[in-house]
Amino acid sequence: MVSTKTTSPGTAQSPAPFARIKQHLKEGLAAGRWPPGALMPSEAELVALFGVSRMTVNRALRELQAEGLVQRSQGVGTFAAPLHQVSSTLTIRDLQEEISARGHLHHAVVHLQRSEPAPEPLAAQLGVAVGAEVFHTLIVHHENGLPLQCEDRFVNPGCAPGYLGADFTQTTPTRYLFEHTALWRAQYSIESARATAQEAQLLSIAPDEPCLVVVRRTFTRDAAITIARLVHPGSRYRLSGEFTP
User: Fold this and answer.
1) Which domain holds residue 116?
2) Beta strands of the chain (E only): which ranges?
3) What is the mean pLDDT of the chain?
4) Lowest mean pLDDT: which of 66-75, 89-98, 109-118, 154-163?
5) How far is Cα 111 from Cα 113, in angstroms, rounded to an integer?
6) Which domain-ending residue is among 61, 87, 113?
7) pLDDT-based confidence at 145, cuts 50/70/90?
8) What is the per-residue pLDDT for 83?
9) What is the three-class DSSP state of 216?
10) Domain annotation covers residue 239
11) Is residue 21 left, alpha or beta, with left meaning phi > 0 and alpha meaning psi from -120 to 50?
12) pLDDT digits (tens, 9 = 90+) for 84-119
């Protein structure tokens, strides 16, 4: 379901406060105001400049960090990312926002949302004890009614205790975790591979259709947050990016 808002003729909606902060910092980085490695404004300075809460500032900085544009060091500050890091970093984008930016309709079908005991390989990846409860969701994201991504995700309850209470037909796991955890870093692997039989069925594709498979693990400073397997039909999805030295 998509909610809509109306505005008076000629009245433009203002961007969210965190988005204004994020755009301000992005423009400064693009203009060279803070060269690679330079110390950027502190959270306290941004709170005073924009008249917002520290939580709002922290969200803007977390998203810039997730995009590889800044580095953050607790107790020290926020720094402009080195160019070599920016060039090799993939952006963690919310699929719902990505689809909406194309002017298309996103909807999600939740096939699984429950707590499960972690087997040994998964426990090691999430840094929990074997047999400890972890959260598991299986969601298929659609663009204009066509299945675009099968998202099979496990979450560390210690990082996001309210995860199973979220309505993932209205928000995405990526957006929920952005808003409820302190994302510090991420690991990716990307390959061309076949979907499993279950994934092929959920995506309505032939069993032998090539897929783009992304496995992504994210972390706080001291714990693994989540590991997700994201499967995209090769004929429906393209991974792209841009880098300006």
Assistant:
1) 95-233
2) 70-73, 77-80, 106-117, 133-143, 146-155, 185-194, 210-219, 224-233
3) 87
4) 89-98
5) 7
6) 87
7) very high
8) 58
9) strand
10) no
11) alpha
12) 555 455 566 788 888 888 889 999 999 999 999 999
To the question of pTM greater than 0.90 for the whole model, the response is no
Annotate 31-76 with DSSP letters as a single string: TTSS-TTPBPPPHHHHHHHHT--HHHHHHHHHHHHHTTSEEEETTT
Tokens encoding 12: 């433009």
- What is the predicted pLDDT for the residue at 10? 41
Query: Tokens 């930016």 map to which residue?
Result: 101
Tell me which long-range contacts 93-98 makes (C-beta under 8 A, separation of at least 24).
93/174, 94/172, 94/174, 94/175, 94/178, 95/141, 95/148, 95/149, 95/172, 95/174, 96/141, 96/171, 96/172, 96/175, 97/175
Beta bridge partners of 230: 151, 214
The number of distinct structural domains making up the chain is 2
77's tokens: 């500050």
CATH number at residue 143: 3.40.1410.10
